[in-house]
Amino acid sequence: MTASLQTKKGYFYVVLHFKDEFGKNKLKWKSTGLKVKGNKREAERIMRDILAAEQEETPQTESALTMPVLIRQWLRVKKQAVRSNTYKSYDDTATMHVIPYFEGLHVPVVKLALAHIQGYYSEKAEAGLSPGSLTRHRTIIRDSLNYAVQTLGIIPSNPADRVSLPKGKRKIPNFYKQDELMVLFRKLEGESIEHAVRLAVYFGL
What we know:
Elements: E1 2-8, E2 11-19, E3 25-35, H1 40-57, H2 67-78, H3 84-105, H4 114-126, H5 131-152, H6 178-188, H7 194-202
Antiparallel strand pairs: 1-2, 2-3
Helix pairs in contact: 2-3, 2-5, 3-5, 4-5
């Protein structure tokens, strides 16, 4: 089951996408009660809550449990254990990056392989995310899979433990040359920031 936001008559609606017992695609519309203007972030929060509630009412079997559902379960547990700003960081990253990627794979947790996770890191690195940013993504993926191992007991080991983050490109610093500094000093003569710039240059700041 997945969810998306739609607008109708100036209001946000949550549209649930799922398959019935015959395998046919179905839609279920639920009103958020929020007007479109200025309420997108709150509507997205309501969408996540509605989706989580619907999934709890129609729980997946262990063999069919997907990463998006697992991550949302882990987030609900994590919310009670970390500071609100830390939780928000996890929730935002999961919602914007991790969950959409794994929704597109359609792979249950029990069949999740190292290659699936490595593919995620590679795709995000190619999109320009820094190794520092990817560390937070790795925490979400690895800790949610630890939850699947230790709490749910649906997989014997964590495939994320064997995946390495891509190395970032080494940045080569670009320094002013002496003649360029002389030009800079001449341009700044009499300006309010002249002394601050000279101080930064002399002390290598």
